[in-house]
Each structure stands twice: as structure tokens, then as C-alpha cells.
Design brief:
Blueprint: H1 5-8, H2 24-27, H3 29-39, H4 44-48, E1 54-57, E2 72-87, E3 97-105, E4 110-116, H5 121-126, E5 132-142, E6 145-149, E7 152-155, H6 160-167, E8 171-174, H7 183-193, H8 206-211, H9 217-225, H10 230-261, H11 274-281, H12 288-301, E9 308-313, H13 319-332, E10 336-340, H14 344-358, E11 375-379, H15 385-397, E12 400-405, E13 419-425, H16 432-439, E14 447-452, H17 458-464, E15 469-473, E16 483-489, H18 494-509, E17 513-517, H19 541-545, H20 551-560, E18 568-571, H21 577-588, E19 594-597, E20 610-615, H22 623-630, E21 640-646, H23 653-663, H24 667-677, H25 680-687, H26 704-720, H27 728-737, H28 740-748
Parallel strand pairs: 4-6, 9-14, 9-15, 10-12, 10-13, 11-12, 13-14, 16-21, 17-19, 17-20, 18-19, 20-21
Antiparallel strand pairs: 1-8, 2-3, 2-5, 3-4, 5-6, 5-7
Helix pairs in contact: 9-10, 10-26, 10-27, 11-13, 12-13, 17-26
Length: 749
């Protein structure tokens, strides 16, 4: 497929501006090298946009109690006492070894600093009780107490002239730093480049900036790095957040504008065609939500520009049915539809459920097939040669209207007769290039429907999937049962775990089935480095240190112990595809009582008779992942039960997270929680095909209003001036945002 017209020529930057000057020539090669390697900062502009994480006031002290383990931190604190100890060691056998222990305080908490050997002399002289300083180092635990070993430090002397000159005012900016480059060194480098902030080209159109009362960009940069008051910081943040939101939304608006210029074949269902025949044989009525979303999709399919729509639906809300109706509408209109699934298990599951829902309508060209029928083919990497040849033939001749497959669909050999619609299931698992390759198989760009069962807060959808229109299915079909969720504290209350296995036996005794989910398979080598160690010495140490529970071990333990006499099988990603399919078929048919599996069952697996799920080491899974997994039970008329087993202590953040999952079935609420607990960049970084998040100031949850307003403003700007000819400052900012990788990301959507 040709590149998108309006984005195919990269934005030409106006003449090289002062902020593009390399840091080498300003700060010297050694400092510039560390900044490039450890912080990804290359130019004066990069450094000016490296904002302080927070600010310390000279008269106030940091909260030492909240320091994160294993992270590089900078604190401002006061020395409470300092003691020099001598000891004997291999290097100093005569008791000549020296250790300096300095205790610093913030009035509420204390933190131990230790210096050894020759490193004790300078701090012993300088770090006297009552001295204030900035300290930087990695937080570790020794003898159950927090400490910094050999921290770097910078004294905050009382000499008024020096402090004004060095720190410019009473607010001390604390920068995201590394062991190689302390916060105050970054502060000094910024002191050098800050005068160049005057040359920053403003990306915001004048009327927009003035209309919203935002300060000019040079002033915002000055205020963020050298604020005199807290109000300065607020002014600067308000302005810099708008820059980020607006420039990103302009990039997405240009993408939508370009898509609107692409040609596509309008696909309208026939009133007496395949879709009508399918609707007639449905044993239930569609929910209002399914009807509404279907209408949105059919309206898009009827236009001569490609649909780009994101369909978000709660676990079990019937997204597959909505997607299937869209696919049938396209087949009615003479085209073909392809569904791309992330795993073979899921592709097979979709193929099975689609052919079951369609019945004789899926038997086109066969005896007994209906008059309106078409063929539904499955295409995966592990198919036998003969079956694969037949599937490829059915696609190229147009015999098969529907194809469901894994990334095997993308291979060069796969040719379509007339590809009209691509449905991508579980969008976040596919690389941009994979989706693009499949879209490139149409004679003209096909319509695109992207589905996800991971609820995405509205602002993230606007930021990450801003080039897609969004539909949300938030109603569950009638007859779905509620799922009760409970945390099982295995270490505090072992009898709770015993009771969990009894509950599994009871459900099986009542004719139902169960899942047991584990974090790993268990056939890999037990490398302690990979075995889930996180933070040695923390109160959660014991639970964290041991390797995550494994499918093979747990299945063996259950079959011989708590679940002996029941039919227990295993399912994991390293099994042969045929074996996986056989296990799933036996479980779906009710021949297996308990399936012990990895997260391979996380999406799409549909066994209505499975009513209970036990998730072992539940604290090792993310919030959204637990919600996904839980959605596999309660899919029939019997109520579902999800037991979250953990060894984490009661007061730990991990237990709090599990409590939140147990407390609500609302996926959108949980996705907000998930996002609040992770760093912003993780969410956007993952979605933006691995590129570093461009958001430094904007928080996608808290700044919902700014993002929504920026989207409106950006759409209006691009509608009147798609090439941004009249806004050179905005073109420059966009060119900086859309480096090669990000430009590709937006091109391929």
C-alpha cells in the first residue's frame, strides 16, 4: 500500500534553530556523552525539556519514609549525627578499616548513609551534625533499615550570595537523574543553557495561547527550571502541558485528515443477504449497546474512505459477535474479511465459535450449505501443507469470504481476491508493521476495525489511539452471571488456601470446571536472576525471592494432593499447537475438570461451564491482566468465582492492588487504577511501538480536560491548514516529535 498521502513527505524543519545545537559544543564532550547515554538528551532543546521531577524548599525537608527501593534518589536533609567506626577486614586485618555512618533526618524519618575506606575523610570533615545538603544515591536495605551507600552530596551552605548564585531562589529543582549524573549537576548544566530558552520557537498559535491565558514558551522554560514561587511552577506546567497535548493531537489530526483522503470501496450489506440470514438464526436478541455500535460500524463501512475504528468492550460484552456481523456485511457486498488474532489458541477459538454461530452459513460450496453461505477458513503457521494450500486457494479465488488467522496471514504468499475489512483482535499485541502488512493486501485500503478487551480510559484512547474513532460496549449480554472475587492470603492464613481447593472440588462436584493460572511454565532452567527477584530486604522479601509458581509443578502437586481424583490437564505456550488445540477441545467438551494454564487463556477462551478460577501468585500479574483472566469464568448461567492467591503481607501495595481488583468488576475503573500505578511512559511507550514516551509533563489521567480541548483545537487547525504552512513554530515542534520511528508509528496507525 502506498504511504498515507499527507504524511508521506516528512515535515521540513525551518532553518536549524538555536535549540537544535548539540550539547557537546555547549557542555563539553564528557558531560554530553553521559547525558546522551543515560538520559537520552542530545541537544540544548532536549535538556531544556528535561523538567524537574519535584522541588525542595530550602527551609523544608524531604519525606525519607516514602523513598522507593532500588531507585536512584535525590533528597534534601539535615545531618543528625555522624560516627566513625574502625573494623578488621581482609584488606585491613589490623583493625584499620574505617566506616563512617551518618544519619540524616527530615524530622519524620531517618536514613543511614555509609562511607568506607578512603572515602570517609571528606564527608567526615564536611557532614557535621546540623549540616544541610542534597544527597543522591541508590536506596538499599541493610539490617532491615534503609540506607544509601557512598552517596554523592552537595552541601547547601548558609552563605546567601552563593546560594542565590548557584540555586537562584529558595526552590531547589530535583531532576530525574542517574548514578552517573546527580540532580545538581544537571541543574548546573541547565544554568549554562537556560539563557538560550529565549530562542525557543513557540509551537502554539498566538490566538490559542492568548485565548487560554498561557505564558510564552521562553517564560515557561525559565519558570520551570528557576521558579521564584510555587505560582511560577503552576504557570509553567499549565503552558508546557498544553504544548505536549496540542502537538501530539495535531500529529493525530493530520493522520485522520490524511486517512480521510484515502479511497476505499463502500461496503453495504444486502437486505436479504448473509447478514440478514445470520441475524435470523441468532437464538437471542442483540443488546442495545451491540445495536448502537453495529450501526456506527455499518455507517463507516458505507463510506468511500477507510473506516478506522477502535472497539473497546468489557470482557464478555459480545465484541466478537459485533465484529462478525461487520465481516458478514462486507461479504454481502462482495468483499472478503480477515480477522487477525495474537495467538494460535485464540485464532482456533475464534474459528470454532464463528463456525458454530454461523452453522450452515459457514458451509459455502459444500453439500448442505445454505444458499447465502460462504467459506470460513483458518490460517495458522502450524497447519499441514495440504490444508494450508487449500486455504490459500480459497482466499485467492474468493471462495472463502472469511479468514481467521495469526500473523501467518501477513506472509507474502497470502493473496486475497478482494480484501474489504481487517479486524484486529487484542490490538496491543500486534506491532504496527504487522497490521500495515495485512492492510496492504487490499486492492484499495481496506476498512479497519481494531478490538480490545482491555478497557482504555478515554484520555488514553484519545492519546494513543487518537487516529481511530472509538466505540465502547459496556453492557453485558443477558444471562451473564456475576463473578465474585476474593483475595486468599496464603501466607497469613494457610487454611484459606486449603478452603480454595475445597471450593474447586465443590464446583467440579456440581458438574462445573475450573481454571488454575500460574505465572510461568516450569520447564525453563531455574535461573535465580530470572526467577522474579525484585527488592531484596523489603518486607515482601520472602514472597518475592522465591521463583513464581509454575504450571508443571502446580499441576503435579494438585493432581497428587488437594485435587487428586479429578481430571487435571496443563496448557501453556510452549506446547505443540495440535496438543494445545486438543487440550482446549477436551476442556470445552467437559472431559477435563481442571485446566492448569499460563496466561495463554487470558483472551478469548470461552468455556461457559467453567465457573471457578484460582490465580496463584496473583500479585505477579498486572491489574488489567487479572481483570482479563477473571473474565474467563461466569460466562454461562452459573455464577463465577475468582480466587486471587498471594503470599504478600497485608499492608503491602501488592495486596492493596489485589483488593481493588476483588472490589470491582468495572474494567474502566481498574484501567484508571492500573494507569495511576504505572509510569505514564510505560503505557504510551508500549502502545507507541516501543518509542520513548513524548509525554514529560502531561498526565493522561489527570489532564483529561486539556487533552480533550487540545484535540478540538488541533482538529480545527488541521482542517483550515493541513500543511501547517502558516505555523512554522508548530511545524518545528512536530518535526521534533515525529522522529523517524514515531513518524512511522503514526503512518501505520
Amino acid at each position: 500500500m502506498d504511504p498515507v498521502p499527507a504524511l508521506q513527505e516528512p515535515l521540513q524543519e525551518p532553518s536549524r534553530e538555536p535549540l537544535q545545537q548539540p550539547l557537546r559544543s555547549v557542555l563539553g564532550p564528557p558531560t554530553a556523552k553521559v547525558m546522551a547515554e543515560h538520559l537520552g538528551l542530545h541537544t540544548v532543546g532536549d535538556l531544556l525539556h528535561h523538567y524537574p521531577r519535584r522541588y525542595e524548599e530550602r527551609g523544608q525537608l524531604t519525606h525519607l519514609a516514602d523513598l522507593p527501593m532500588d531507585e536512584h534518589v535525590t533528597v534534601v536533609a539535615q545531618v543528625a549525627d555522624a560516627r566513625l567506626h574502625t573494623f578488621a577486614s581482609a584488606k585491613a586485618p589490623r583493625g584499620k578499616g574505617q566506616r563512617l555512618e551518618v544519619t540524616i533526618t527530615d524530622g519524620s524519618g531517618r536514613l543511614q548513609l555509609v562511607f568506607f575506606g578512603h572515602g570517609v575523610h571528606k564527608p567526615h570533615k564536611e557532614l557535621l551534625p546540623g549540616t544541610r545538603a542534597m544527597f543522591a544515591g541508590k536506596v538499599s536495605v541493610f539490617n532491615r533499615r534503609l540506607q544509601l551507600a557512598h552517596p554523592a552530596y552537595e552541601l547547601l551552605r548558609g552563605d546567601p550570595e552563593e546560594s542565590v548564585e548557584t540555586w537562584a531562589g529558595s526552590l531547589i529543582p530535583i531532576y530525574p537523574a542517574t548514578a552517573k549524573l546527580e540532580s545538581w549537576k544537571i541543574g548546573k548544566a541547565l544554568q549554562t543553557v537556560l539563557p538560550r530558552a529565549q530562542d525557543a520557537v513557540d509551537p502554539l498559535p498566538g490566538p490559542l495561547r492568548e485565548g487560554r491565558g498561557l505564558v510564552p514558551l521562553p517564560e515557561a522554560l525559565l519558570k520551570i527550571h528557576r521558579p521564584q514561587t510555587r505560582a511560577d511552577i503552576e504557570d509553567a506546567r499549565a503552558r508546557l502541558k498544553w504544548d505536549e497535548a496540542f502537538v501530539l493531537q495535531v500529529a493525530l489530526a493530520r493522520r485522520r485528515h490524511a486517512d480521510g483522503l484515502l479511497p476505499a470501496v463502500a461496503r453495504r450489506p444486502r437486505p436479504d443477504g448473509l447478514l440478514a440470514a445470520f441475524d435470523d438464526r441468532l437464538p437471542f436478541t442483540l443488546t442495545d449497546g451491540q445495536r448502537k455500535v453495529s450501526e456506527e460500524i455499518f455507517d463507516d463501512l458505507a463510506t468511500e474512505h477507510p473506516m478506522h475504528r477502535l472497539l473497546q468492550g468489557e470482557v464478555g460484552s459480545g465484541k466478537t459477535l459485533v465484529a462478525l456481523r461487520a465481516m458478514l456485511a462486507v461479504v454481502d457486498a462482495g468483499g472478503q474479511a480477515a480477522m487477525l488474532a495474537p495467538t494460535e489458541v485464540l485464532a482456533q477459538q475464534h474459528h470454532r465459535s464463528v463456525t458454530e454461530m454461523m452453522g450452515e452459513l459457514a458451509e459455502g460450496g459444500m453439500l448442505g450449505g445454505a444458499e447465502n453461505a460462504t467459506k470460513v477458513v483458518l490460517l495458522t503457521g502450524s497447519m499441514g501443507a495440504a490444508a494450508r494450500r487449500q486455504a490459500l486457494l480459497d482466499l485467492v479465488t474468493g471462495e472463502a469470504g472469511l479468514v481467521i488467522g495469526t500473523h501467518a496471514l501477513i506472509e507474502d504468499k497470502v493473496q486475497f481476491h478482494d480484501l474489504g475489512l481487517v479486524v484486529v483482535d487484542e490490538q496491543h499485541r500486534f506491532g504496527v508493521e504487522q497490521r500495515d502488512a495485512l492492510r496492504g493486501k487490499g486492492k484499495q485500503p481496506p476498512h479497519l476495525l481494531v478490538m480490545t478487551a482491555t478497557p482504555i480510559p478515554r484520555t488514553v484512547a484519545m492519546t494513543v489511539f487518537g487516529d481511530l474513532e472509538t466505540s465502547v460496549l459496556d453492557q453485558l449480554p443477558a444471562g451473564r452471571s456475576p463473578i465474585a472475587s476474593h483475595v486468599v492470603p496464603a501466607a497469613d492464613k494457610p487454611h484459606f488456601l486449603a478452603r480454595a481447593w475445597e471450593r474447586v472440588r465443590e464446583e467440579v462436584g456440581n458438574g462445573h470446571q475450573a481454571y488454575v493460572v500460574c505465572p510461568r511454565i516450569g520447564d525453563e532452567e531455574d535461573d535465580p536472576k530470572k526467577a522474579g527477584r525484585k527488592k531484596p530486604g523489603s518486607p515482601e522479601d520472602d514472597a518475592e525471592k522465591r521463583p513464581p509458581l509454575a504450571v508443571l509443578d502446580v499441576a503435579d502437586h494438585l493432581a497428587k494432593g488437594p485435587l487428586s481424583g479429578l481430571g487435571v490437564e496443563v496448557l501453556h505456550g510452549r506446547m505443540q499447537p495440535d496438543d494445545k488445540d486438543a487440550v482446549m477441545r477436551r476442556f470445552a467438551a467437559g472431559e477435563t475438570d481442571v485446566l492448569v494454564a499460563t496466561t495463554v487463556i487470558e483472551v478469548g477462551v470461552n468455556v461457559p461451564n467453567a465457573t471457578v478460577m484460582v490465580i496463584t501468585d496473583a500479585d505477579r500479574f498486572g491489574v488489567s491482566q487479572l481483570h482479563q483472566l477473571r473474565g474467563r469464568v461466569g460466562r454461562g448461567s452459573a455464577p463465577g468465582l475468582c480466587l486471587l492467591v498471594t503470599e504478600m503481607p497485608e499492608a503491602s501495595p501488592a495486596r492493596g492492588r489485589l483488593g481493588a481488583v476483588a472490589g470491582t468488576l468495572d474494567g474502566f475503573e481498574l484501567s484508571r487504577l492500573d494507569l495511576e500505578q504505572r509510569r505514564e511512559g510505560d503505557v504510551l511507550g508500549q502502545a507507541q511501538s516501543g518509542t520513548r514516551s513524548s509525554l514529560r509533563m502531561l498526565a493522561v489521567i489527570d489532564d483529561e480536560e486539556i487533552i480533550a480541548e487540545a484535540r478540538e483545537e488541533a482538529t480545527a487547525v488541521v482542517a483550515t491548514d493541513p500543511g501547517l504552512e502558516s505555523l512554522p513554530g508548530l511545524r518545528t515542534a512536530l518535526a521534533a516529535l515525529l522522529d523517524d520511528e514515531r513518524e512511522q508509528y503514526l503512518e501505520k496507525g
